[in-house]
Amino acid sequence: MERSDVASRVNADTDDVLATIPLVAGNERLTGHLFDQLVDLLLEGILVGLRGDLAEGRLTAQEFADELATLASQCRRVGLLETSL
User: Which structural domain range is residue 19 located in?
Assistant: First the structure.
């Protein structure tokens, strides 16, 4: 699957989740699931964007690695990634 296809899917899925959240506002379990899904989609969008920047020469391999390391560190700080391997 090409990056543009992935980016389009991520954007469409994000729009769907954002449109659905208000519809399930009274259901904590569904709302929590949708917010988890939204976080996953937002992170996927960031990763697709970084990969696109690398592929199109806007980032060097080192800059790409640095961006990934920064993103991973930020995700760990807020509990989105486990700190142990």
Answer: 3-77
Whether residue 7 is contained in a domain is answered as: yes
pLDDT in tens, 52-66: 999 999 999 999 999
Domain count, the chain: 1
In a domain, 20, yes or no: yes
**Residues 63-75: tens digit of each pLDDT:** 999 999 999 999 9
**0.70 surpassed by pTM:** yes
**What is the DSSP code string of the chain?**
--HHHHHHHHHHHHHHHHHHGGGGTT-HHHHHHHHHHHHHHHHHHHHHHHHHHHHTTSS-HHHHHHHHHHHHHHHHHTTSS-S--
